Amino acid sequence: RTPPGQEPSPAAYQFSRTICRIPKDPIYKICCFGELLPYAESFQDNQMKATQVATIILLTKIQALDREVGASTNSVLAALDRLAAAGKGRRKKEDVETVLKWTKNLETQYNGATSKCKLGDLFKYCDMVPTVKEIDAATTITIDLLNAIKL
User: Fold this and answer.
1) Considering the entire predicted model, what is its pTM?
2) Which pick of 5, 69, 114, 144 has the fewest CB atoms within 10 Å?
């Protein structure tokens, strides 16, 4: 993470702008840039590492809401590590599918169609946990970036 008060390098800044053109919705492009820019130095010019950062940001937001989600994340984090370590042409489709399946499952649990109980908790604790819109944006950004991965 870029230390507070410091700007990322021009190259990291520009790459973040490029990566955040991937989401289709203009609002998500802006959210993507805001979420990823503080971490731009960590992924430099690596799209897979940027996707890994976006997924971890999503995971962090979900864990703030639901601690039980942590148990299901080990295989996802392992798949992300393998994807980030493998070069283009060596990434396994199964790893991308593992992360996509997990992310899409979250999308169904924390979107507007969510049970009133879970949504009620979101609104009840809204000053302490991410909002539905934040989770929706993080989920959509992660899915769009995952779909753009070149195996």
Assistant:
1) 0.73
2) 5
* 3 state SS for 47-61: HHHHHHHHHHHHHHH
The tokens describing 3, both together, are: 């230390």
**SS3 at position 134:** helix
Residue that is written with structure tokens 């009840």 in the block: 124
Angle formed at CA 62 by CA 129 and CA 21, multiple of 5 degrees: 105
- Per the listing, tokens 């503080």 go with 38
pLDDT digits (tens, 9 = 90+) for 70-122: 666 778 888 888 888 887 778 888 998 888 888 887 776 655 554 444 544 55
Identify the three-state secondary structure at position 69.
helix
CA–CA distance, 141 with 70 (Å, rounded to integer): 20
The tens digit of pLDDT for each residue in 60-69 reads 877 766 666 6
Cα 25 to Cα 46: distance, rounded to the nearest angstrom: 22
Give the count of beta carbons closer than 10 Å to the beta carbon of residue 36.
25
Distance CA 123, CA 100 (A): 27
Contact 86, 92 (CB under 8 A): yes
